[in-house]
Amino acid sequence: MIEPSGSSLGERISFQGSKTDELGHATIRLHPEATITWVIGLKDDFGFDYFENYQSWPAIHLDPLPDNVSLTLHTAGKIQARTIDSTDQPVAGVFISPWTLQLSGKLSYVNCSGSTLTGRRSNTSGSCDYLWLPKEVSQRIGFSGFVNGYHCPDQPAWDAQQPQQPVTFRMLKNGVVSGTVRFPDGKPAADVAILGEGRGATNRYFRGSTKTKADGTYKLSIYPNQSTIIAVANQNWAAASHTG
Q1: Which one of 25, 42, 121, 229 has the fewest beta carbons within 10 angstroms of its own beta carbon?
Q2: Residue pLDDT, tens place only, 134-144
Q3: Which three-class secondary structure string do you get for 133-162?
Q4: What is the pLDDT of residue 5?
């Protein structure tokens, strides 16, 4: 997998490269102007490695990517993840990925969040296994988990001191805010963007959006147990925001 740096807004994009052949070689085609932060390689039961395309961290200025990059897979272990709801029932389909992971001898960590290569989805029993993560690490490995309709307010982590303990995600069901947007004359305001942003007891904040229907109504799924502000975003019209 190639991990490019993002735009001027600081976004990061992940995309899959290619698989190695019987000689362990792989060719990846890139846009000549792509700015690459990491090259990542992994395989179940064999391990994981990443190439750092910088000389210091934080990587303010990235180097041009070399024509050839070598990766050495480290010994893999097994980490299990569990996804349950507030009543301890399994939640299927949660996309789970390691967040940041640093190998010994590297300048810094690699950010795996959002990567389709490093992520797995929990099965109907609310579990999934990771068979490529390094076996010998001393630090905790944080994980992220996402699925429509649920929110995990914490960031579960795998603890090297308790390697057999699963990484448990307690997924809380989202709430729904609904309402109607109208113009001053009472007519429904269709196709108006509604933005929501929430903050709670942890740093896992909410940010989402939707648009009004033809009759001016809208529904927005929001995280539970957070103070949330709902606002109108339109080039020509404004309205007082709602908080709660």
Answers
A1: 25
A2: 877 767 889 99
A3: CECCCCCCEEEEEECCCEECCCCCEECCCC
A4: 46
